[in-house]
Amino acid sequence: MKIRLLPILLFGTLLVSLSSCLSKVVLEDDIILQQNETQIQQYISAKKLTTQKASNGVYYTITNANPNGRVMALGDTVRLHYVISRLNGDKVDSSSVLGNRPFTFVNNGSNTNVFLKMLPYMHEGERATFILPSTLAGNSQVFPNLPANSPIRCDISFMKIYSEEVTIDEYVAKNKINVTEKVPLVSTTTGYTNYLRYIRVKEGAADVITGKVAKLKYTGRLLNGFVFDSNVSRTDSLNYTVGGTNSLVQGFAAGVAKMKLGEKATFIFASGLGYGRTGSGAKIPGESTLIFDVEMVALKDK
Q1: Is the CATH code 3.30.160.250 the one for domain 26-162?
Q2: Residue 183 forms beta bridges with which residues?
Q3: What CATH topology corresponds to 165-300?
Q4: What is the pLDDT of residue 17?
Q5: Least crowded by CB within 10 Å, which of 66, 68, 130, 242?
Q6: Residue 10's pLDDT is what?
Q7: Which of 276, 222, 286, 274 is nearest to 248 (CA)?
């Protein structure tokens, strides 16, 4: 039997070549990482900083501690002021402190958000200095005023975490509201889990039937008590087709779906189940928690 040696030899040569290239890339990455480490250690020593090294490779020091502050959680809205600079002191980027316009983002767990590599080590209200190797700060990418493979310093002077879910829980506790059911719902707009607080005020007499049209009386208000809509004093009712497609915000629809004929209930839910970060008109600002007092007054055929 004849063995065709040429293809085998060529394949072997290719493997050796690929292995050599990969080894070269790995070696270059190791060299860059070591160079970064040397630069960072020299910088820390020159600036006489006392830092900790996190498991992800970030060096940091808390310059103004607030250990009782909240820690950022997935889905939180975060606002912060920051200054990013090279280790030689050249500023790369910053928020607008003078204009009081903090950088704002939603913690979605993204690996590409450089702040999510730092903020897990801070509490709300703290100030901190972070030093990041280039592997965590753009790596070989070139940005304005930041050459490739450059470690950076980031000073965070303000961090405010906003969670509607925490605010709602505080509101419920302060007003001694007895929540009948706390229902987890994945927001159709954000993809995050929010909770519908369902408070049964009056028991219903009969189950609703799919395909029937429920007549609803309601009052909608914000956490501060401002009433943005109501049909209680009007002769008309809001129609809701049970089990059908309705143009109601997600939290309201989920609450109504739990009601019985004659039932009165209150729904409380975050903006992720309502009008989101943009709000609705002048009466409902963005990121508004909504409260609805609802009564199912009738159930009829279409």
Answers
A1: no
A2: 196
A3: Chitinase A; domain 3 (3.10.50)
A4: 53
A5: 68
A6: 43
A7: 274
Residue 136: name the closest of 150, 120, 126 by CA. Answer: 150
| 196 Cα distance to chain centroid | 18
214: which 2 tokens? 């429920």
Radius of gyration of the CA atoms of the chain, in A:
28
For the entire predicted model, the pTM comes to 0.70
Tell me how far CA of residue 42 lies from CA of 49, 87, 146, 150, 302, in angstroms.
11, 10, 19, 14, 77
- Measured from the Cβ of residue 4, the count of other Cβ atoms closer than 10 Å reads 7
What are the tens digits of pLDDT across the range 127-186? 999 999 998 887 656 567 788 889 999 999 988 998 899 999 999 999 999 999 999 999
Domain segments of the chain as ranges: 26-162, 165-300
Q: Which residue has the tokens 């509490």?
A: 123
Of 169, 269, 150, the closest CA to residue 221 belongs to 269
SS3 content of the chain, % helix, strand, coil (to 5): 25, 35, 40
Is pLDDT at 202 greater than 70 in this prediction? yes
Q: What is the enclosing helix (H) or strand (E) of 216? A: strand 213-222
Round to whole Å and give the CA distance between 77 and 161. Answer: 6
98 and 157 Cβ atoms separated by less than 8 Å: no
Q: Percent of the chain at pLDDT above 90?
A: 61
H or E element: which one contains 296?
Answer: strand 290-300
* Cα distances (angstroms) measured from residue 95 to each of 15, 57, 205, 240, 256: 49, 24, 57, 46, 43
Partners of residue 280 on adjacent β-strands: 284
Burial class of residue 36 (count of CB atoms within 10 Å of its CB; 0-12, 13-18, 19+)? buried
